[in-house]
Design a protein that fits this description.
Distance between the termini: 66 Å
CATH topology of the largest domain: Nitrilase/N-carbamoyl-D-aminoacid amidohydrolase
Shape: elongated
CATH architecture of the largest domain: 4-Layer Sandwich
């Protein structure tokens, strides 16, 4: 028995572009054949249509398009075993399928058995579960397939072992959230120990709407040790060698990124792919001199390069000189297009037009919101004129409690920090400055302020961010009740106030820009609450 060479094809498909994705499969398969002399190359889950395809799976032409793609692969692939994922119609319903193409034909098909229907997943809306566990003999190995969620349950892996498999292959479209890489490694180790089989785990990479797929494909030996790991957040073709004595090796064992580096790279990749896959030439954002817009600018530049990023300072009478100086300095450091547009004339024009309707009414939040909406008008006008995507800069803490203005600072197409709590914003800004100092230190150290009123501070309206974020994590991400949160030492009146703010601002979040998910419970596909409801906190 000779060394068995496998290749992990960690690719970035475009959802719905079946022809494009098919060409990627062909390109990587030929590379695996020519550069590695591989016996096997494995691609991610549903790679021919991309993940998640959502209601594209309901389109009448889907099956004809997939059939054409599979026919092309069978005709044009090199002489090795190629594992690809695709949807397939069957008498019992639609299957999330993986197939092994060898010698111009599909030699084995496996249908996903464990269909996730939680967090961002709703596969039971589209698919029915498979039941069989076929095994294919190829180049001295007995290959069995599983798909993503299957590996999180013992049944499919044990069935593969019972069927006589010598190598368990797991195709994935596994999105990132904080802590996810360690969770994957632990579950793979357990499956290897359960079965005595090595596992080839291949994950897709790239941004898809609010989701980011971080790659991190790996080969795990029968003892549960990761022996080969592809880089996170990058496309890769990684060689894995299975030796006759059972040893497992390969080209690389990339390190696992720490938490801040992983989150930062997820945000960068999310921006890069949202902008690129939707064909925006550039982005524009309001640079206020505050920490949220400062971090957003850094992420945008790291994702797209300075030539595709424009920053706009929009001062008003309450905007401090320090904010204006810091914004200009960061724009200079990062080399982006920068301009300052005074909103005072716009605000005054709006105020004059509204003065008859507002006669006799005292100034209140309306005037503060009018400032934000003046800025929103400017940014959207620049977007219309240039084709640039407006990046909004609100963080998860603000989005949770509604500390944002509809059609003002919420105006735009992508909210980079939508799932990033304020305390994490500070940590990420400090992390980015450790790479090279692009954010002025005063932006990070001074108290946050919307600067919509004289001497305004965020903590005039909100609890201190460490306290607020702790409560929000328990309520939004852990789904704990008010009573359970209070039992952990938080003041009851504060807990009820914060939870009420979260609940009554669902209408704002429904109208907010899409944002990049980095936690286990983001605002979007994860959390679906009715706007109109009579639920009472404390029930």
């Amino acid at each position: 028995m000779s060394t068995f060479i496998a290749a992990m094809a960690q690719i970035n498909p475009l959802v719905g572009d079946i022809e494009h994705n098919t060409q990627i499969v062909l390109d990587y398969a030929w590379r695996a054949h020519r550069e590695m002399q591989a016996h096997l190359v494995v691609f991610p889950e549903l790679c021919l249509i991309g993940y998640p395809p959502e209601d594209l799976l309901l389109r009448p032409s889907l099956h004809a398009r997939i059939a054409r793609a599979l026919a092309r692969l069978q005709a044009e692939l090199p002489p090795l075993a190629v594992v690809v994922g695709y949807p397939k119609a069957a008498p019992q319903g639609l299957l999330n399928m993986a197939g092994i193409i060898v010698d111009g034909a599909i030699q084995l098909e496996y249908a996903k058995q464990m269909l996730p229907n939680y967090q961002v997943f709703d596969e039971k809306r589209y698919f029915v579960s498979g039941t069989d566990m076929p095994v294919l003999d190829w180049a001295g190995q007995r290959l069995a397939l599983t798909i993503c969620e299957d590996i999180w349950h013992p049944g499919p892996a044990l069935a593969a072992s019972a069927a006589g498999a010598s190598l368990l292959i797991n195709l994935n479209a596994s999105p990132f959230h904080r802590g996810k890489p360690a969770e994957r490694a632990a579950i793979l180790a357990q499956r290897c120990v359960d079965t005595g089989l090595p596992v080839l785990y291949v994950n897709q990479v790239g941004g898809q709407d609010e989701l980011v797929f971080d790659g991190g494909s790996m080969a795990v030996d029968a003892q549960g040790q990761v022996q080969v790991r592809a880089a996170a957040y990058e496309e890769a073709l990684t060689r894995v060698a299975f030796e006759p004595d059972g040893a497992l090796g390969g080209d690389e064992l990339e390190p696992v990124l720490d938490d801040l580096a992983s989150v930062y790279q997820a945000l960068v990749l999310g921006v890069r792919d949202y902008v690129g896959k939707n064909r925006f030439p550039s982005v524009v954002l309001g640079l206020s001199g505050g920490i949220d817009s400062a971090l957003t600018l850094a992420i945008a530049v790291d994702a797209l390069g300075p030539q595709r990023v424009a920053a706009v300072m929009m001062p008003f009478r309450y905007t401090s000189a320090l904010s204006q100086d810091d914004a200009a300095e960061q724009a200079r450091r990062m080399g982006v297009s920068y301009q300052s547009i005074d909103i005072e004339p716009i605000f005054n024009a709006f105020s004059a037009a509204l003065s008859p309707a507002f006669a006799g009414a005292a100034a209140d939040k309306t005037e503060e919101n009018l400032q934000a909406r003046s800025r929103g008008v400017i940014l959207m006008a620049l977007s219309n004129k240039t084709g640039s995507l407006v990046l909004t800069t609100g963080n998860k803490s603000e989005m949770s409690v509604g500390y944002a203005t509809l059609y003002g600072d919420m105006a735009g197409g992508l909210d980079v920090l939508k799932d990033v709590p304020k305390t994490l914003v500070f940590a990420l800004a400090e992390y980015r400055n450790r790479l090279n100092e692009v954010i002025p230190v005063s932006v990070i150290t001074r108290p946050p302020s919307a600067e919509l009123a004289p001497d305004q501070k965020d903590e005039d309206s909100l609890p201190p961010y460490p306290v607020l974020d702790a409560i929000l994590a328990l309520y939004v991400e852990a789904d704990q009740s008010a009573e359970a949160i209070i039992a952990q030492g938080f003041a009851a009146d504060l807990v009820y106030k914060v939870l009420r703010m979260v609940d009554v601002n669902e209408y704002k979040r429904r109208q907010a820009a899409i944002g990049i998910r980095i936690t286990q419970r983001g605002f979007g596909r994860d959390r679906r609450y009715p706007i109109t409801n009579g639920w009472k906190i404390g029930d």
